[in-house]
Write a structure and sequence with these properties.
SpoVT-AbrB_dom; SpoVT-AbrB_sf; Pemi-like Protein 1, Chain: D; single chain
Length: 88
């Protein structure tokens, strides 16, 4: 069993053995899941699931601000073109 201490900033250092087992690297997203016994399970998030989760949050915030999904998609495409081709 590994242990970690919660810092004053509510952060924990994941023990090296756990990082190695989960093949964690800086910037990885982690899921904290609760099982039927109330125990918390730490799992490395699937990158696509993490991306979709972030996109869902952006879409929800935009919707709350009255921004339509198509407007977000249009803006995303504009930024993508600018970064890829230097177009405006």
């Amino acid at each position: 069993m590994s242990k970690a201490k919660l810092s004053a900033n509510n952060q924990i250092m994941i023990p090296e053995a756990i990082r190695d087992k989960l093949q964690l690297t800086p910037g990885d997203v982690l899921d904290f899941l609760e099982n039927e016994h109330g125990e918390i399970i730490l799992k490395k998030a699937n990158r696509m699931e993490a991306l979709f989760s972030v996109l869902d949050e952006i879409n929800e915030e935009a919707s709350n601000e009255g921004i339509k999904e198509q407007d977000l998609l249009d803006e995303w495409e504009k930024v993508r073109r600018e970064r890829s081709y230097g177009e405006e």
